[in-house]
Amino acid sequence: MDMASLLSKGHWTRALLPIPLWLAGAGALLSAGCGEIEPVRGGGGAGGEGSGASGGAMSSAAGSGGAGGTGAGEPLCGCSEVGGVPSECVALTDNSKATKSGLRMAQLQLQLPAAFKNPVTAGPLEQGVTPNLKSCALSGDGTFSWLIELDEDQGILQIGSARPVADPTEGYCFIDETLAGIAVQPATAGASIRGGVLSMDASADVVIVIFLGGAESFLLLPLRGLLLGGALSADKNCIGKLNAELLGPSPDCEPVGDVPWFENGGTIDAHVSLEEADAVQIDALKQSLCVLLTGDPGTGNPKKCVRDANGEIVAKGDFCSVTNEAGGCQDAVRVQGEFAASAVTIHGACPPGP
After folding, report:
1. pLDDT tens per residue across span 37-94
2. Which of 280, 261, 276 is nearest to 321 (CA)?
3. In CA terms, which of 25, 203, 230, 349 is 20 to 30 Å from 151?
4. Would the pTM count as exceeding 0.85?
5. Maximum alpha-carbon separation in the chain
6. Distances from the Cα of 262 to the Cαs of 126, 130, 203, 245, in angstroms?
7. Please, what is the end-to-end C-alpha distance for the chain in angstroms?
8. DSSP run (H or E) holding 4
9. Half-sphere exposure of 70 (CA within 13 A, CB side)
């Protein structure tokens, strides 16, 4: 059963984390499969002609062809390597011999909360997290950078955000400053790699920054009880992989139909307190994050969640922060999703932004 099926059928519970057993098998699979691949040309899918080099399939599937294969001379879709680093996930640096392994989420697909399907947040979440690497036919904005850095010697994982960068090959740094009156800095937690699977020893609290376009237009996502894990490639450069063989014809190379850019290999599970969410304003919507997450009609300008005579938020979430379980006190909203990540250089904490 794949990750999407586990989530849709309710099989994914916090009890499975921090070491999801269903990921252990995936860890072995991905560890064996993240080597160098042949360059992939536009096409993919069934029905085309030619070999894997001209029909859009990976070298291991030579001869299967792909619809709309472009033939010689057309731009390549995807990169088998960047800067001399071969990978299936467009890694920008090599973690195989590094003391610390740095990764940036290249795709994040949230199943919960459903409120993040709002166009104001859906675009930055989906398009913003996709890398902006025109040379590899990745046409994302690259404005939403969720960083993960594992120090295996110390058994420490750092999780945080980075500001948009002009050149992703130059690397990223963790935001460590106060934004909109809220402290934003990387969270630290114990973590390890066992059986090819990265897992956390305990949950962490972290504020993730989702940039909505400019450097000063952002949404703060205060995550509580975050558990994050994923199946790493053998060289620690990938969690998941690029769906290179499923990309459409060049030069656009967009995924066809509902196929995403990447095949996910990791999961996240956390929650957002409604009280904290009500303190986060979304300027583009003129309302608080609490209003967005709960569908509350809101009050005031900008709108905040309606409160009762005792000052308590009337709207209810789908999660209880007290018991760390669904339902119950309903003072929080659960955040669950899947992700893919690629190796990047992380330069520690950066100086405050403009």
Report:
1. 334 433 333 333 333 333 332 222 233 333 333 333 344 567 878 889 999 999 999 9
2. 276
3. 25
4. no
5. 71
6. 11, 9, 26, 11
7. 46
8. helix 3-8
9. 19
